[in-house]
Amino acid sequence: xxxxAFHLRLILLAxxxxxxxxxxxxxxxxxxxxxxxxREFQAGxxxxxxxxxxxxxxRAPTLLTARVYLATALVHAYVPDDTSTENxxxxxxALAACQEVLNRDAxxxxxxxxxxxxxxxxxxxxRSREWNLKVVALDPGSKSSLYMLGAIYLSEVGNVIRDxxxxxxxxxxxxxxxxxxxxxxxxxxxxxxxxxDGIEFERACLALDGEYARAMITLADLLRVxxxxxxxxxxASDMTEVADLLTRxxxxxxxxx
Length: 257
Prior knowledge:
Layout: H1 3-13, H2 15-21, H3 28-42, H4 46-59, H5 64-77, H6 85-104, H7 109-121, H8 125-138, H9 143-167, H10 181-208, H11 213-227, H12 232-254
């Protein structure tokens, strides 16, 4: 399942608890706006729901729940890879809404998760990593953040290793490790720690959900990258696990995992 889908599930599961929180005295207008926003959010109408939650915030400025939902709706309204000015404004609004929540509750998990998610969608991976690490510190069971952390490390090193292969005239079908021992050692010194950190995040994700296909595929890619930096024995060991992971991932995808 995509990390954004995990995020959506987290928020939807919080709906009942959030509605219970509205037992505090509120104006009818604030309550109605919030309830409309929840229905729109559940229906996938994120821009409309953001407008409704904004009305609830304006009518009940102290209602933190409405601010959390406003931030979350804006995150989901943002479209990755859409370079339009309108979409950029949605992204800015999402970040601002998240920060408003965190200004009032620095340990708010949904808002922290939303910050990590929106930066991931924006491909601002350094900032996404910072926020995903905060999510994991607050909620060690966050599969989406563990997955995204591994994916971020892969994004940083995957192209480097592919470029190294190309420079040596090695195709993707050529077995490793990298043929140039000096280059291999330089890359090990510079990148091995991040590769291993990414591997551990994906393993932690799979420890929580052993059928998560995306995590299996990302772990396999990270192991393939590490294999190119090891000796022949380490290469064989990592590639054996890669083959197993890809087989498991194929089965998980077929099962709709």
